[in-house]
Amino acid sequence: MGNSTSPPTPKQIFTDLSVELTGFDRAELAGTGMIDTYYDTLLRMIGEREAGQLLRYANDALTADQQTRNGAALKKDVIDSPRFGPVVVSLIKLWYLGHWYPLSGAYRDLHGSTADDVEHVISSQGYREGLVWVAAGAHPMGGKPPGHGSWAEPPSLQTP
Q1: What is the pLDDT, as a whole number, of residue 2?
Q2: Domain of life of the organism in this record (predicted)?
Q3: Closest CA relative to residue 130, chosen from 101, 95, 82
Q4: CA torsion 46→112→84→129, rounded to 10°?
């Protein structure tokens, strides 16, 4: 019998990274229906080779942080990295707003990008499922209406 635990797939690493970046758990991110779309978006925006490097560094950092439980490796090796930090910021915006914001010219000069790396809304579903709405305790304008008469009650002050 071989090793019963197989290494995580790139999409699993992307999901684990997204959990750490957004503060939402795996089930909440899966509930948006956007994991596949946002994973594919990342590959399109920075290219498969660079995305592979980001995910490799993220996986190594996440594995190290499982031991220390302090997030220091992810912060040092990915979030604060000149190479991956700008991409991470765009990913956070993507999850919260459903909108891709392009990488800076300085980043592109050093690390390249693709022709798709322009500001754009990913999809109407991305807008409706943006984490910003849950974090704010609100509903997206024009989507997911809260129901008749809901305006008569003050908003819930629960945190996600």
Answers
A1: 44
A2: Bacteria
A3: 95
A4: -30
